[in-house]
Write a structure and sequence with these properties.
Elements (H helix, E strand, L loop, with lengths): L4 H7 L9 H9 L11 E6 L2 E6 L2 E2 L9 E2 L2 H12 L11 H12 L5 H11 L6 E2 L4 H22 L6 E2 L8 H10 L4 H14 L2 H8 L5 H8 L1 H10 L3 H23 L1
Parallel strand pairs: 5-6
Antiparallel strand pairs: 1-2, 2-3, 2-4
Helix pairs in contact: 1-2, 4-8, 4-12, 5-7, 5-8, 8-9, 8-12, 9-10
């Protein structure tokens, strides 16, 4: 006999008198998190890489590749995420593991498309699109973004063109080529930079982070000038704030990858 959402509601110990069809449907659709099946998370070295060990056995990525990273520091950070799990394993609390899995499975086999995508982001980089008004926001854009653009121009030879509003501006091929030349060759750095790029909307911020021009906190702040301005203007929204905190945890995990290589 097929179970109904009411059956699931009752089975999970919910009050039958308080049955709500919408809430019950959401409850029924929730993925059951796997129980923690290991006592200890550690690190082992083999074949020049550092592997996540669960009770002494090598862990695997979702596609069954060895969960192995280039440095002990990064492996220990991944192991700390696994050690921090309690009764269940919750991927939402493991941003570093998710990034490592994605790099192993999607970047290491062929880094070139990832580098191409970072360059595509730079062609419409967040830092190049400025507000025309109000003057206070214009000033904030300049204060947060002009130093990064000046650094890219002077240190990388990448001179980007600015635009007001959302009107598209075609960036010089020379600027895009200079940014591409600044990208690292190795898949691990590229994969982490791609996460930073997509979360911030700026390849320039990702390059500045990778090259030590900005700290992770400075990158995150620069990426949210507009959002912070709107929050000050219209007030705080807790749902939006929680989504932002989740994205920030992801970006800080990517920054950990870069710092651990």
């Amino acid at each position: 006999m097929t179970r109904s959402v009411f059956d699931d509601w009752f089975a999970k110990g919910m009050d039958p008198a308080a049955y709500d069809p919408t809430a019950a449907a959401r409850l029924s659709m929730k993925t059951q998190l796997p129980k923690r099946f290991y006592a200890e998370a550690g690190v082992g070295e083999a074949d020049g890489a550092f592997r996540l060990l669960l009770d002494g056995r090598s862990a695997k990525t979702p596609s069954r590749h060895p969960l192995a990273v280039p440095t002990r520091r990064l492996a220990e950070a991944v192991a700390a995420e696994w050690a921090a799990q309690r009764q269940v394993i919750d991927p939402a609390t493991m941003p570093l593991t998710r990034i490592v899995n994605a790099i192993i499975e999607g970047v290491v086999p062929d880094p070139a498309p990832v580098a191409d995508d970072i360059v595509r982001y730079s062609a419409s980089d967040l830092l190049c699109y400025r507000a025309a008004t109000p003057a206070s926001l214009v000033a904030r854009h300049a204060a947060a973004w002009d130093p990064v653009l000046a650094w890219a121009r002077d240190a990388l030879g990448a001179r980007f063109i600015l635009s007001e509003g959302i009107v598209h501006v075609t960036q010089p091929e020379r600027a895009l080529a200079a940014l591409r030349a600044a990208l690292p060759d190795d898949a691990w750095r590229l994969g982490a930079m791609h996460v930073v790029t997509t979360l911030t909307g700026s390849a320039l911020l990702a390059v500045a982070l990778q090259m030590g021009r900005l700290t992770p906190a400075e990158v995150w702040s620069a990426a949210h000038v507009d959002e912070d301005f709107q929050t000050e203007l219209w007030g705080h929204d807790e749902d939006a704030a929680e989504r932002r905190r989740a994205r920030e945890r992801e970006m800080m995990a990517a920054a950990t990858v870069l710092a651990s290589l």
